[in-house]
């Protein structure tokens, strides 16, 4: 066996779900660019479509690598599930798929017509299944087999929980493209998915606040986790807004018809309140990050936490601008997208550097074995 073949085998064995956070960050970037600057920038349409295609290719590659790991090294699945940090990133698998299916709704119809909507609906149900599966599976292992201490807790606990509300937000967008009967099922299911995620995520945020007060900041390797709280708050807000927009048409002519206008109002008010909660965490995340930067931030795949949570918060801000007509939301949302693009550019460059040199392919759940490509890598 050649050196290159051994290297590929090592990469497969040490491939982790963390890599799907790259899909999350890239996906929310093209969605945010499409929403905040619709055809306003030279080459904007080509850029967003290009990022969508790039995101799909990455997702297919990452899926093939992860499945290859579990087929070739089946013992690593159990070790992953028992790892108190790596297992959390299983939630990134369905979350990374959501922007891709949204892209089929935004761009695919111009090429494939109604078939693009059918594919997006199929992907949505697949995504919903995975989100619910990991939303129960990972906490089960947390309760029964993983070892956790309050002082070691970080916001990564949110990852397997938040995926269901990300799917719910996508359901609000998908429902607009479907006939009323199907749209009603999608919207109703999405509200259930939202409820499976947001209340539990808010509970975790409360525990996280207590942990930070009692035990102060986590190690700088987990510094970026302070941005993750924006995820459930931004997506929770966005989900209420999008479902509120979709509900009147989806419920028309059904027993729930009278709830359509109510759902819209709840979406705006509830979305605004969650957005305000997120504003507190956005400021705090900046303050904590600047403090960490004085110590130096070591790069790892956790840096993708700079992107998706910020992106969904930006998307919620832009949706609030659309629903309320307040110019301030539009301006702030556009600035958040600029921040997102800057973060994405830096993190992508560092990621490709780590991929080329191999040090990012290092599974912590296998850290007691020899054969890791580099001591650095995944957080």
Automatic annotation (TrEMBL):
Belongs to the tellurite-resistance/dicarboxylate transporter (TDT) family. CDD domains: TDT_SSU1 (cd09318). Gene3D superfamilies: Voltage-dependent anion channel. One of its GO terms (molecular function) is sulfite transmembrane transporter activity. Its main location: membrane. The keyword Cell membrane applies. It comes from the Bacteria. Signal peptide: none annotated. GO terms for cellular component: plasma membrane. It is a multi-pass membrane protein. Pfam families: SLAC1 (PF03595). This is C4-dicarboxylate ABC transporter. It is found in: Cell membrane. The chain crosses the membrane at residues 12-31, 51-72, 93-117, 123-143, 155-179, 191-214, 226-251, 263-289, 301-320, 326-347. The keyword Membrane applies. Keywords: Cell membrane, Membrane, Transmembrane, Transmembrane helix, Transport.
């Amino acid at each position: 066996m050649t050196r290159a073949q051994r290297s590929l085998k090592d990469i497969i064995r040490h491939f982790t779900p963390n890599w799907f956070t790259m899909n999350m960050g890239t996906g929310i970037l093209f969605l945010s660019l499409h929403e905040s600057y619709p055809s306003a920038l030279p080459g904007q349409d080509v850029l967003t479509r290009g990022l969508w295609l790039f995101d799909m290719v990455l997702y297919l590659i990452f899926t093939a690598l992860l499945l290859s790991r579990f087929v070739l090294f089946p013992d690593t699945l159990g070790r992953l599930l028992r790892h108190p940090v790596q297992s959390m990133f299983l939630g990134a698998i369905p979350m990374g798929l959501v922007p891709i299916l949204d892209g089929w709704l935004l761009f695919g119809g111009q090429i494939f017509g109604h078939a693009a909507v059918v594919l997006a609906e199929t992907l949505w149900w697949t995504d919903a299944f995975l989100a619910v599966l990991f939303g129960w599976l990972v906490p089960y292992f947390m309760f029964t087999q993983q070892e956790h201490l309050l002082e070691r807790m970080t916001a990564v606990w949110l990852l397997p929980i938040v995926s269901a509300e990300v799917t719910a937000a996508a359901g609000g967008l998908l429902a607009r493209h479907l006939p009323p009967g199907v749209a009603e099922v999608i919207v109703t299911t999405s509200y259930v998915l939202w409820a499976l995620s947001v209340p539990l995520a808010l509970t975790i945020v409360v525990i996280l606040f207590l942990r930070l007060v009692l035990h102060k900041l986590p190690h700088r390797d987990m510094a970026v986790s302070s941005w993750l709280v924006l995820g459930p708050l931004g997506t929770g807000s966005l989900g209420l807004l999008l479902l509120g927009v979709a509900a009147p048409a989806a419920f028309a002519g059904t027993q729930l018809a009278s709830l359509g206008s109510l759902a819209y109002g709840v979406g705006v008010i509830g979305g605004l309140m969650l957005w305000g909660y997120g504003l507190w965490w956005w400021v705090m995340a900046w303050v904590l990050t600047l403090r960490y930067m004085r110590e130096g931030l070591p790069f790892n795949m956790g840096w993708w936490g700079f992107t998706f949570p910020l992106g969904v918060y930006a998307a919620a801000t832009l949706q609030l601008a659309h629903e309320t007509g307040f110019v301030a939301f539009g301006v702030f949302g556009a600035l958040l997208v600029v921040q997102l693009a800057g973060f994405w550019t830096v993190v992508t460059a560092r990621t490709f550097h780590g991929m080329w040199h191999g040090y990012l392919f290092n599974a912590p759940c296998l850290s007691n074995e020899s054969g890791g490509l580099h001591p650095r890598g995944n957080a």
